[in-house]
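Hi L.,

As promised, Chalcone isomerase family protein:
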Amino acid sequence: MKKLAVLFASLLMSFTLHAKEVGGVSIEDQLTIDNQTLTLNGAGIRKKFFMDLYVGSLYTQNRTSDANTLINSKAPMAMQLDILSGMITSEKMASTVKEGFETATGGNMAPVRERLDNFIGVFNEKIEKGDRFIMMMVPGEGLMAYKNGKHLTTIKGDDFGQTLFKIWLGEKPADHNLKRNMLNG
């Protein structure tokens, strides 16, 4: 009986080491896309007006709590958004991303405007509760966007990916609690 209890405890511990749950969403410890394996840096819930909108999970090569190091890194990183609310629509998501870019660039949208217009197409299809978006930045290659495992687009330019990640990790993030949870795991 004691051996069975030890076996059960070790299986339970190994399971919790490989996945965690945030907002009812199972978040894996690692994310592998296009032969790039990244480790969960941290995850949290994006809230607005007391509503849970999505789970944001940050994946990096090396865990850190320094946002500037991540944003300026020459290493791949990824942001995973798991939609929790049916209130998120394609139009609202596009509008929110545009606002985020406005804030992240300090209003200097000219260098990214055309690429942002192309990126917004990621949100053209209907967004439903349970959808998963992944934005993976690979320096030198660009920002790759996926919805529910399907590659939608690649936007060239490290500056674009850095600006996108500033929406969550910059000086004026979309949600301070989400930023803290993604950086402190």
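The CA atoms of residues 120 and 184 lie 29 Å apart.

Thanks again for sending the construct details.

K.
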